[in-house]
Specification:
Length: about 325
């Protein structure tokens, strides 16, 4: 099988081209992941979709192919993708939020590609420096998890533009978690990812415009929340927690994430970022309790992070 039939569908010309169905999109991505597709055809397909914008069904089909190709991994409760470029963000505070969720007794699966990030924003270095992995928190690098997926993502360097692969990897959920959190850089993708997830039968998802495209809540801004709750579409607003509009990456306020976690650095903005992000994740896992209750739990987890055993969720 080649990609040619799928390229013809989307690129025939005005009045003749159409979007791929979900089944067709799954078939096309299966070919791309198999290694049998010609590079020219991959570029043609992805750039046509980039030009006109991907449909819900196309994103769902591409994601289904990724999920079908994934080797067996330990099951997780919460899927946490991390694929942002890191150029516009500071220290990855969201990883501290992920650890708080793990301390609450949940199994959190981080996955992504971050080795290209600038100094201080590389997730792998932070996990190593803080020794956060284990005890409910695992990280899976994309290049080990899916070499074919890594090659597709790396096409950005050759094509000069991002493709829908960035979106699909955020929706991948390789550990088959029952809930997922996703950050986006462009607000229009919040609804796209929510609708595509509904087509896939996902039940619990929270999507926000986060710091640098990561799932990281800015505590000084109201946050529009998209996603799913028991497969029903979600659209709510979480009000700002601080009267501060500072940027997450601000040279005058450097965040030493190791010192912040240990308690040596006292930085209210950073602490509120961690707590607010963890609260959204905890709410995604247990939305029956409500966001206010999740925030109370996240606050308690932060203050007791060094003198408590991991609880049973």
């Amino acid at each position: 099988m080649t990609l040619a039939p799928y390229v013809r569908i989307v690129a025939r010309g005005k009045g003749r081209a159409r979007s791929l169905t979900q089944q067709e999109a799954q078939g096309a991505m299966s070919v791309m992941l198999s290694g049998r597709a010609a590079p020219e055809a991959i570029g043609a397909l992805l750039m046509v979709l980039r030009l006109r914008g991907e449909s819900d069904a196309e994103i769902a089909g591409f994601t289904a192919a990724f999920r079908a190709s994934t080797r067996n991994l330990p099951k997780a409760d919460l899927d946490w993708p991390s694929y942002a470029a890191g150029r516009s963000r500071g220290a990855p505070l969201f990883v501290l939020a992920a650890k708080l969720v793990a301390l609450a007794g949940y199994r959190v699966a981080l996955h992504g590609w971050n080795a290209h990030q600038r100094e201080g924003a590389d997730l792998r270095e932070v996990l190593q420096d803080l020794q956060l992995e284990g005890e409910g928190l695992a990280y899976y690098p994309l290049e080990q998890l899916s070499p074919a997926g890594f090659d597709l993502l790396a096409l950005r360097d050759r094509l000069g533009l991002r493709s829908c692969i960035n979106t699909v990897l955020r929706m991948w959920n390789p550990c088959g978690a029952r809930a997922s959190v996703q950050g986006v850089f462009h607000p229009s993708y919040r609804g796209l990812q929510s609708r595509a997830a509904a087509l896939l039968g996902d039940r619990s998802l929270t999507v926000i415009k986060g710091g640098g495209g990561e799932f990281e809540r800015h505590p000084g801004k109201d946050v529009a929340i998209f996603g799913l709750r028991e497969q029903a579409e979600l659209h709510e607003i979480a009000l700002a927690r601080l009267a501060s509009l500072r940027r997450l990456r601000k040279p005058n306020y450097p965040i030493d994430i190791v010192s912040l976690w240990s308690g040596r650095q006292k930085e209210p903005f950073a602490v509120e970022t961690v707590i607010g992000t963890a609260a959204l994740a905890l709410w995604t896992l247990d939305h029956g309790a409500g966001l206010a209750e999740a925030t109370d739990l996240a606050t308690e987890l932060w203050h007791s992070r060094h003198n408590r055993s991991r609880r049973s969720a």
